[in-house]
Design brief:
By secondary structure, this protein is mainly alpha-helical. The protein has 2 domains: 100 residues, Fe,Mn superoxide dismutase (SOD) domain (Helix Hairpins, Orthogonal Bundle); 107 residues, minor pseudopilin epsh fold (3-Layer(bab) Sandwich). The chain is built from 9 helices and 3 strands; from the N terminus they run H-H-H-H-H-H-E-E-E-H-H-H. The protein has a 3-stranded antiparallel β-sheet.
Length: 244
């Protein structure tokens, strides 16, 4: 593969941050293909766009307030989309003129904004005013991986609450080991476990909870369990697991 095609591949793989979406020959890897196609497919102008919330801003109250949801979605997530579009444009310009002097900078921008766009897109769909039920398959994997749902909840809560600085708590699936794992991400573009596919995430950056919970991150994490849409989470898990 020549340098030009290599950098085109990096434009997508760098944007995801959390795991490799394509191999360097451009072949789509099966996992998360549905979400990737929906989130990362540009519009007719070639721009990435902010996905709509699947519910009203106030739908998660009293656990997550309307003002936080509106600022988080409309300002913070939109900022990642804008940054991803800008970084993509800069990389495309570099490819056209064969000038890669700033490629290290723009690859970092792709990773940061692309991963933020991807993680937030999962985050919104993790939640909802109705929780639904966990699928029998997800229950089976939680029991096999953590002993029980209650053990998972305690583990996930402790991990998300203890993330240093800003970041994410993540429930992911490891295809090769065929098990679930809980991860911490201090920055969504760093410290990735490339064999792990995230399907339930919680944003523990301060902008996600500070207006209502101030510095009480633990209270916010506990409240998050009251708004998890387990039906959506279960459906995502089934699609991921079915790809292997």
């Amino acid at each position: 593969m020549d340098k030009r095609n290599f950098l085109k591949a990096l434009t997508l793989t760098g944007a995801t941050g959390l795991f490799d979406l394509r191999n360097l020959n451009g072949q789509t890897i099966g996992h998360m293909e549905t979400i990737v196609n929906r989130v990362f497919a540009p519009d007719e102008t070639g721009k990435y766009t902010l996905p709509n919330l699947p519910y009203a801003y106030e739908a998660l109250e009293p656990h997550i307030d309307r003002q936080t949801m509106q600022l988080h979605h409309d300002i913070h997530h939109q900022g990642y989309v804008n940054g991803l579009n800008n970084a993509t444009e800069k990389v495309n310009e570099a490819i056209k003129v064969d000038d890669y002097g700033l490629i290290k900078h723009w690859q970092r921008e792709l990773a940061f904004h692309g991963a933020g766009h991807f993680m937030h897109s999962i985050f919104w769909e993790n939640m909802g005013p109705a929780q639904g039920k966990r699928s029998s398959s997800l229950e089976k994997y939680m029991k096999g991986s953590f002993g029980s749902f209650d053990s998972f909840k305690k583990y996930f809560t402790a991990a998300a609450t203890a993330v240093e600085g800003s970041g994410w708590g993540i429930l992911g699936y490891q295809p090769k080991a065929d098990k679930l794992v809980v991860l911490q991400a201090e920055k969504h573009q760093n410290l990735s476990q490339w064999l792990t596919v995230p399907f339930l995430v919680i944003d523990v950056w301060e902008h996600a909870y500070y207006l209502k919970y101030q510095n009480r991150r633990g209270a916010y994490v506990n409240a998050f369990f009251n708004v998890i849409n387990w039906e959506a989470v279960s459906n995502r898990f089934e699609k991921i697991r079915g790809g292997y």
